[in-house]
Amino acid sequence: MTAPGAAESGGDWWGTEDVCVKFGDTLALDRVWFRAEPGRVSAVVGGDGAGRTTLLRCLAGALAPASGRVRRPARMATGYMSAGSGVYPDLSVTENLAFRATAYRVPPQQARERSAELLARAGLDRVGDRLAGQLSGGMRQKLGVIAAMLHRPDLLVLDEPTTGVDPVSRADLWWLIARAAAGGAAVVLATSYLDEAERAQDVLVLDAGTVLASGTAEQIVAAMPGTLTITSERPAGDAGRRAWRREGRWRVWDPAGLDTEGAVAPGSRDVVMPDLQDAVTVAILARELALVPAGQESR
Amino acid sequence: MTELPAQAVAVTRAFGHFVAVDQVDLEVRPGEVVGLLGANGAGKTTLIRLLLGLLRPSGGEIRLFGEPPSRHTRRRIGYVPQGLGLYDDLTLAENLAFSAAAYGEGPEAAAVPTPLRRYRGTVTGALPLGVQRTAAFAEALAHRPDLLVLDEPTSGVDPLARARLWETVAVAAVAGAGVLVTTHYMDEAGECDRLVIMAAGRVVARGTAQEITGDTRISVVQAGSWAAAFGALEAAGLPVALVGRTLRVPGAPPDAVRRALGDLPAAVTSAPATLEERFFELTLSSGQTEGPS
Description:
By secondary structure, chain A is α/β, with parallel strands linked by helices. Chain A is built from nine helices and 14 strands. Chain A has two domains: about 5-215, 3-Layer(aba) Sandwich (Rossmann fold); about 220-290, no CATH class. In chain A, a hairpin with a 2-residue loop joins strand 12 and strand 13 (about 250-255). In chain A, helix 2 crosses helix 3. The N and C termini of chain A lie far apart (about 50 Å). The longest helix of chain B has 16 residues, at about 160-175. Chain B is globular. Chain B starts with 5 loop residues before the first strand and ends in an 8-residue tail after the last helix.
């Protein structure tokens, strides 16, 4: 039997088993099970305060859980980019990578070749002498990911690599992520963009420290309870609390056939096949409705 | 004639030799949500600063409600900047009161909206990002502006909170405000009536998402081993993107992709491009690089 909070290695996957993390009286992670496999990209999604960063810090070995187990490779075989890129603003691009290579004992020649290749592919080859603190947001994020994957880690953990980044830099970042996975790393990334989660092979949806859903995007969509309809008008009454706007129309979630009583005008509604964005929105909404009973809502 | 909330006519703005905005025409009509898309360095932020009257054009003309930008037109604009523009050290209620006073509005404009009431006495810097965004929207809308300018309004919030922010935008538009919004998130293009794409300081496409994507197609690769196919396409210098276990290759026809794969087992087909892929193509073919920083 392993002691609570212990880290384990070995086996063909990394992740957490029944992990709880407490900050004072707050339960930041509440019995979280998560699995990241070699050669696959896993996305951890959720809003502000969902627990994404806490989970990623556990995986990176930067935080010990109060209970449960973390399965992770040795520190030298882990690559971690904290939120905000984690590069040294006062060092140049090449100095940042040289420093990282030394810390992870990458042979100098190999480090130079791999740095040059990744920098060129990410469009950073002409800014090697620029201080990291003077890079644009997208460039700094790309440097952060390159620094984290430079030593070919078995587990690559990236905290919001693409938040606030423009689409061109985002494409470069995804190329780096795919490259790491193609090389056999298990890649775990936190994101608030669901189109990115849809690109990942596995998805974990967190809210307030608990797992709302997990699996492939298809599995999460298939597991969504109830039905979803589209209407052109915001529905009135109780159905309005279960409605949200998307692409100029209204999605209405019906957990159990409640809307047959005419809350939504007949003829104006169509049942739709949900996608990941719908399924995650439903998961967050269901939780919110359970926390705020009818008649007490703030809307 | 209805006055246009915002209009740029052949507007150019140079900084030294660098032309940030180059001969741009743009209109925002009442009740319309216009999405402004562009990579970093495309000129979006400079264009917004020109429209707000914070910068003067080097050439061309900016008109707000039919007249040049002035203190008078500024009062009719609601603006949510990327950094939200709230005072971290003031409580939420103090932020709203300060803004209402700055716009010369009465206490009704300073009222804290119901969903935010439980946070009214909290120092704004300590609030969750989603709450701060909602507050910044409330502040920008309190004086019932006729033009709403939003710079990446939904960055970093969950999908339900994002849907609610877009609902706020839609309500303002239905009430007659013109809305100009920038986003890096192509899924949100569907919330806009019209899109304008900028690259290298110029407008390179405009219309609905469907009109902009048109009949552009890309190649799709389903391989036995995506990692091996990724390596082969990469070695051939093709711009390859991983989506699940599928590879998407914009800008290369299926036969070229097939050749690059050599004898790897893979099915290569073609599929309609997404807006993001089309955007990518437009930006690359404009020759844009990130501007000087």
